[in-house]
Amino acid sequence: MKAATMTSKMTVDDAFASILTANYEYMQGFLDMAYNRESIRGVHQTRVSFRRMRSALSVFRKAIPKDATLDMGTEMKWFASELGNARDTDVFIDEGLGDPDIKGKIGPESGETKMMDLAVKKDEEAYVRVRAAIDSDRFKAFRTDFVKWIEDRGWRTKMDKKTRKKLDQSVGDFARKTLTKRFNKILAMGENITELPEETLHEIRIECKKMRYSMEFFTPLYDQDAMKEFTTKFKSVQRQLGVINDVAVMPTVLERIMEGQDDAEVREFANGVAEQRRSQQAAAIAALPGCWEDLAAVRIPWLADEPVNSV
Length: 311
Fold this sequence. Notes:
This protein is mostly helical. The chain has twelve helices and no strands.
């Protein structure tokens, strides 16, 4: 997606508004696609937009207290949750059943066909919920209120004079401190990456996701080649953590899709899918230490003496 307008001379207030505006406008471009179920990108990108906007509330927390954004944050969390089942089922159909290592390779064939039918039915049910959320008065009110909230800088009304001064600081300094703190936290959490339990890897994955959004917000401030190098290493870690997590949650997704079904062929196929995914998880676990080592060694763009974009 197109990055928000960002220079190191901007204030924190202006940068926050720019990020929210860019992501809201991006979301607008996918609502019809999500509503009409034209492509899995519709729901996915709509949810990504909301995750990024919610992440912005967290990234700027040191300058903008939670109370100042609580109402909008609650509405964003609600709407994103309404799209959750559709997104999970879309991913299962596209990346699970559509995986080249699974599609047509795990018997019985009739079990695969039945599983696809069940998944499509669950997907259709999930999209009923998606359309209801988009059509709801609650979401319509959010869209109107959110735009006005950004235009009026509504978060300022719930901040005292002393706290509002933080909004006038340079976003360049703010970004450097924020990125450094988040990255150091991730490195500390994964210090013994080969010995960590699945639960801790899941926590690191969540922190990486937050870090990724933060990086994307502030990327225009730094040397683009350096940011590309860092982001490439970071994505490699995220990719392995994502596979590990996807396999961990697959039983839950499978049970939801197969709810009330006792068909032996479907169960056999589901077991085959789970086994194949576990082998992919094992590969990801094996690859993770090397990816982590590469990330820990890469140069950090935001610790350069001066931001590139300082106009």
